[in-house]
Amino acid sequence: MSTALVTIVSGRHTHLRRQREWVAVQSDPPLSHVVVSMGDPQIEGVLALHPGIPTELVALPAAAELPLAAARNAGVARAAHLGAESVVLLDVDCLPHRDVLRDYRGALVRLTGRRAVVSGRVRYLPEGMTEGDYTADGVARLGRDHAARVLPPPGELREADPRMLWSLSMATTVQTWDAAGGFDERYVGYGGEDTDFGQRLAAAGGGLWWLGGATVHHQYHPTQSPPVQHAAAIARNANLFRATWGFDPMEGWLHALEERGVLARDGAQWHLVEPRSNSGS
């Protein structure tokens, strides 16, 4: 089964450079590393640092908000055009263990005949690592598992709730991707598009599977929890999701933003709370 690796990116050039170093030593190399640039003309220079990796660059125009759903669709479409039968989606922050593509490909072969998305192990790396720490031994020592993710024993597959689908690291066949219809490109900016794809997968008779393997190591970057800076997009995408599927996605974030007075709910609709003026009379 031929497999392409798809990564979408805007900025994060150091993360992409490191990821490519790990892609170069995969035990089961990809048909191609399809890199989708979301309005970032400097990505081509980062890719040139590793000319030995078969690579396809898909350049999307700059937009006011990152077109995450459209970028993933563009990447998978290019992979399919190249002849890939399956795809691994990997966020630019993630460093793939040398057997990630082998593990994912093997899991998809075992699930032949099913419409399945497989999600492997994700370990989070701490702040303050030096370049010398980014070795197989270094990341194995420093990485920590995500508390919300199920971790089956090595090599085992365990069926999961499609609402837990997260495109950070996942694999599927092009046939399953097409049956689900890919990502809904009405989702723009941060939040909701992964959960929506999980519902599209389920509606097409497919399912999510956790894999004990396909380990990736997530490189540190600053974050906010809840992501206040993305509140407007989260509200807009949550409203779209609810109108489509009848329930809220991202409930933890929505309620945390509500508690902070950043978002408010009016009936079934979430909206951004306009800040009050502190000016006196």
TrEMBL record:
For the keyword Glycosyltransferase, the answer is: yes
Record carries keyword Nucleus: no
> What metabolic or biological pathway is this protein involved in?
Cell wall biogenesis; cell wall polysaccharide biosynthesis
Please give the Gene Ontology molecular function terms for this protein.
glycosyltransferase activity
Q: Which domain of life is it from?
A: Bacteria
Residue intervals of the Galactosyltransferase C-terminal domain? 170-208
Q: Which InterPro entries match?
A: Galactosyl_T_C, Nucleotide-diphossugar_trans
Name the record gives this protein: Glycosyl transferase family A
